């Protein structure tokens, strides 16, 4: 998602601290043997909290076992410390789950990724969405359509600010896309657009024989026993288990609770709430000991474009990213970033060193706040430690 600075500042006109997630409680977490790098990782996350990030949960799985810990606060108002078992919004990591569902339908012969999306969605559904009659499903998944990104639309955010917790449907959101100019001609990208994955969720609805949220549970969440993963707004969030989400609204060091701001959850491109343990399990089943996809599907998923997107050292695949491209050539990771108004997350597997990183921070990093660099310094420092002996 893009930087929301202008629209976030407008939020000061509204009652942005109401209708937040209920009070967060303490939670129980499993025990793991001590990790030899625990002291180093602990120092990294504690330093990031010292820099001002409210709460951090970090899990690293490597040849030494599993490191997992947390720092800071899950609920500032009630004095509840952040724990790895707390659940947070992981935003665009949702797109990986949608990508898996699409490949599963392809394996069943229900979906051809190289067919036009207009073969699956009606003219009325795609009405006045520029480029939508010319792009394939695979281009949707690889963000190579040029279709206007709803997250860049001022009207969408004004509607959000007028009613932060409102549950918006796919069609509600597409009204902010219709008639808007595309970013580029089909195939001339990439260009990240949340609208792409929203349209993919509509295709899943049609071809899966049931709503995509049911497919998500039946094909991924239930088989993997991801009991702490929820797809909001279709799933109710568990009382007391969800970390509050924050943002420095006025850039003055005071964190506002923006947990209630719903930027389109449940429409394919965002909506997953999870914790570091469930996300580790998902990544293991996707990339490390693959059970979710066939080798052929996985090869397709991990086929990337040859252009970095937004000059941010990442290449886009079909529902996945190849990130950390600014590091040594063998230190890239496969996975996805998650960025929202009040939450951030990273889920990556580094194939050459066989390490998994799951990072959750209950602070929004798309707005251009003074704290934003602290998050990017944190993710770099974590990977720096991962790559050291």
Summarize the structure.
This protein is an alpha+beta fold.
Describe this structure in words.
The protein is 29% helix and 15% strand. The protein is of the alpha+beta class and 389 residues long. The chain has one domain (5-94, 101-109, 211-387): 3-Layer(aba) Sandwich (Beta-lactamase). An eight-stranded antiparallel β-sheet has the order 3-2-1-13-12-11-10-9, with helices on both faces. A three-stranded antiparallel β-sheet has the order 4-8-5, with helices on one face. Strand 12 (344-350) and strand 13 form a beta hairpin. It is globular and about 55 Å long. The chain starts with a helix and ends with a helix.
Major sheet: 8 strands, antiparallel
CATH superfamily: DD-peptidase/beta-lactamase superfamily
Task: Indicate the percent of residues in helices.
Answer: 25-40%
Shape: globular
The N- and C-terminal alpha carbons lie at a distance of 34 Å
Tally the helices. Answer: 11
Identify the CATH architecture: 3-Layer(aba) Sandwich
CATH topology, anyone? Beta-lactamase
Indicate the radius of gyration in whole angstroms: 20 Å
- The helix/strand series, from N terminus to C terminus, equals HHEEEEHHHHHHEEEEHHEEEEEH
Number of domains: 1
Main β-sheet, spatial strand arrangement: 3-2-1-13-12-11-10-9
Judged by helices, strands and strand pairing, the structural class is alpha+beta
Query: CATH class, please?
Result: Alpha Beta
């Amino acid at each position: 998602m893009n930087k929301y600075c202008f629209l976030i500042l407008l939020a000061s006109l509204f009652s942005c601290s109401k209708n937040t997630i209920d009070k967060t409680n303490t939670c129980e977490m499993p025990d793991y043997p001590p990790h030899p790098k625990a002291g180093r990782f602990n120092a990294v996350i504690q330093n990031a909290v010292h820099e001002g990030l409210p709460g951090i949960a970090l899990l690293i799985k490597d040849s030494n076992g599993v490191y997992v810990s947390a720092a800071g606060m899950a609920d500032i108002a009630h004095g509840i410390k952040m724990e790895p078992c707390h659940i947070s919004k992981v935003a665009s990591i949702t797109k990986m789950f949608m990508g898996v569902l699409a490949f599963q339908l392809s394996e069943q012969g229900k979906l051809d990724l190289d067919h036009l999306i207009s073969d699956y969605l009606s003219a009325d559904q795609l009405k006045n969405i520029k480029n939508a009659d010319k792009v394939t499903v695979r281009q949707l998944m690889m963000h190579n359509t040029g279709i206007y990104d709803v997250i860049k639309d001022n009207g969408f955010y004004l509607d959000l600010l007028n009613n932060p917790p409102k549950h918006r449907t796919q069609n509600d959101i597409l009204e902010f896309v219709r008639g808007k100019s595309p970013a580029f001609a089909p195939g001339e990208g990439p260009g990240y657009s949340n609208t792409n994955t929203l349209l993919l969720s509509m295709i899943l609805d049609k071809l899966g024989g049931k709503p995509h949220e049911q497919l998500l549970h039946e094909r991924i969440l239930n088989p993997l026993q991801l009991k702490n993963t929820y797809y909001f707004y279709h799933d109710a969030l568990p009382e007391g288990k969800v970390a509050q989400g924050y943002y420095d609204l006025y850039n003055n060091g005071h964190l506002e609770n923006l947990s209630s701001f719903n930027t389109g959850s449940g429409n394919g491109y965002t909506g997953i709430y999870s914790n570091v343990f469930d996300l580790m399990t998902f990544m293991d089943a996707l990339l490390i000991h693959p059970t979710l996809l066939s080798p052929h599907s996985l090869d397709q998923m991990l086929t990337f474009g040859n252009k970095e997107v937004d000059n941010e050292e990442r290449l886009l695949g079909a529902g996945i990213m190849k990130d950390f491209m600014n590091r040594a050539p063998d230190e890239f990771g496969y996975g996805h970033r998650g960025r929202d108004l009040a939450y951030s997350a990273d889920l990556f597997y580094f194939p050459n060193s066989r390490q998994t990183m799951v990072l959750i921070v209950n602070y929004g990093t798309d707005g251009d706040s003074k704290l934003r660099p602290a998050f990017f310094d944190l993710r770099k420092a974590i990977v720096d430690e991962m790559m050291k002996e």
